[in-house]
Amino acid sequence: MFSSFMINTWIAGTAIALVAALVGYFVVIRHSAFAAHALPLGAFPGAAAANLLGVNPFVGLLVFVGMGVLLLRQLARIGRRDVGTGLLLVLFLGVGALFLSMTSEYAPEVFSLLFGEMLGVSDADLWPILVISALVTVVMITIFRPLLLDSSFPDLAALQGISAARMDLIFLSLLALVTASALPVVGAFLVFTLLVGPPAAAQSLSIHPLRSLLLAVIFAESSIWSAIALSYWTNWPIGFFVGMLGAGLFTLVRSYRHWSQRQRPVVQVSGL
Amino acid sequence: MFAFLSSQPVQTALIVGSCAALVSALIGVFTVLRGNAFAGHALADVSSAGGAASFLWGISPLLGFLGMAWIAAFGMEFLGVRKARERDLATGIVLGAGLGLSALFLYLDVTTTSTTGAAVSVMFGSLFAISQGLIWPAILAVLAVFLLVGLFYRPLILTAVDPDLATLRGVSPRWMGLLQLLVLGLAVAVCALAIGAVLATALLIGPAGAAIRLSRRPAQAIFWAMIIALTAVWLGIWMAYESYYWFSGNAWPVSFFVVVLIFLFYLLAMFGSSWSQKYQCRGIASLRRLQEP
């Protein structure tokens, strides 16, 4: 399981899970699950186009995810935000389907871009992931306080002179960077699952920001590690395990909270 | 034109495509009014797992899409979609789990049944390759949706626009939510069959999003959504058919044309209505100026 061809997979998975949990924490408190789902799929034609033109897939991903961020903000301005997000997402997917239909390996490409290709992460794939993960972590630490304030109390943040529009742009750019680096390895759908599942479970356990963030990172790392191991043993796609682990974790945490909230009043009464 | 209409795959595509356009326009207006675009999109994405499973077990893809869409709908309801604040998260979690299942089924499709095209036709649709046997089930699904919505039109609209008022009037939000998910599942299944599970969202929210901008009255909005959806689907099918000649033997996917057309119509409706509003406002402002002494 830790043979030489798997080492890069473990490193990439660990880095991606870390930044996904950091950005995912804000996806959850800003209620941006739809954007977090749309941006990876918006980047999807980038990989397909790069494949077609024979350039580095990473360049294609960055170009398309950047366009995605800009168009997302424009479309949100002219209509309902969720409708705009949904339409942008399918437009990009349709373009990606067109690009892929022009290549000879239509079906396998569709599958690996949507659901990931964990095996065979080359050193050339690994470098962008590590650099971007480091960059995202640093930016995240720098703007943590203003972003947190803007996400939780927008009015208070505005009073302190924090521009909501700028925070939105920074947040979406971070999301885009995580997406572009993670997509070739874990697939467009899986990026989203990592972004939402572990932070949502962590949020249910603790509302304290740092504690919740730490829990999110722990959940994300343990789900990606178990997913890699399970996928290695069973040969089944990694996306299946990450999706199921995320949903299982969330349901478990929710039932625990539900149960403990029910217990609490009884304890208080007996304490009296 | 005659060759286009007399071709068997084109006829099937036109019938199934029209079914998808009509049903999605009707349900889409409710979905967009309720602010359920993400949930609608998630249902469509998750239904891909059913489509992939249908290849595996040899059942009708329509049943596969429908079964999975309903399971996902009840999953969201169970995880607490009713609280608006948590709706986003519950939707995301169900979406993640469903996509995971989809990955597994597609993988098993490729490894056990050697249907290599499954990922493409489930995700992005293959309207020209739909078997004729699916025409009647699709029409039946559409009729069922129109019947259900026709019977409960007023409470459904009221719940979509103002849930509190609906509760005051004695409409059970629980039952209406369930009914909404039931018909949404049917609509999603037909759309997923036509233009693919991940692109079905285009039909579901695009025409409705544009139509709501064009008219404030729900019935009129539904009518406009149907016109837009039908135009996009018919034009898309025709362009995909003709693209075989445009690009010397490399036909472009029909789903691509449909999605792009819907997006263009949406932009047109948005900018068109904001221009006309600006024009009207200017008109009113100049009238006011005239009235002022």
Characterize the structure shown.
The complex is a heterodimer of chains A (272) and B (293). With 272 residues, chain A is mostly helical. In chain A, 87% of the residues lie in helices and 0% in strands. By secondary structure, chain B is mainly alpha-helical. In chain B, 84% of the residues lie in helices and 0% in strands. In chain B, helix 7 runs antiparallel to helix 10 and helix 11 packs across helix 12. The longest helix of chain B is centred in the last third of the chain and has 38 residues. The C terminus of chain B is likely disordered. At the A-B interface, helix 2, helix 4, helix 5, helix 10 and helix 12 of A face helix 3, helix 5, helix 6, helix 11 and helix 13 of B.
In short:
Helices cover 87% and strands 0% of the residues of chain A.
Please give the structural blueprint.
The complex is a heterodimer of chains A (272) and B (293).
Chain A lengths: L3 H26 L3 H21 L3 H22 L2 H22 L3 H10 L7 H20 L1 H9 L1 H6 L4 H23 L1 H18 L3 H26 L3 H34 L1
Helix pairs in contact in A: 1-6, 1-9, 1-10, 1-11, 2-3, 2-4, 2-9, 2-10, 3-4, 3-9, 4-5, 5-9, 6-9, 9-10, 10-11, 10-12, 11-12
Chain B lengths: L1 H5 L1 H26 L3 H21 L3 H19 L4 H30 L4 H7 L10 H17 L1 H9 L1 H6 L4 H23 L4 H15 L3 H29 L7 H38 L2
| N-to-C series of helices and strands of chain B | HHHHHHHHHHHHH
Q: Note the beta-strand portion of chain A.
A: under 5%
Instruction: Decide which structural class fits the backbone of chain A.
Output: mainly alpha
Which assembly state applies to the chains in this document? heterodimer
Total beta strand runs of chain B: 0
Shape of chain B: globular
As a whole number of angstroms, the C-alpha radius of gyration of chain B is 20 Å
Q: Mind telling me the CATH superfamily name of chain A?
A: ABC transporter involved in vitamin B12 uptake, BtuC
For the record, the CATH class of chain B is Mainly Alpha
List SSEs of chain A in N-to-C order.
HHHHHHHHHHHH
Helix content of chain A: over 70%
Rg for CA atoms of chain A: 19 Å
Total number of distinct structural domains of chain B? 1
Low-confidence stretches of chain B: 283-293
Roughly what percent helix of chain B?
A: over 70%
* CATH architecture assignment of chain A: Orthogonal Bundle
Using the alpha-carbon principal axes, give the shape of chain A. Answer: globular
Q: How many β-strand stretches of chain A?
A: 0
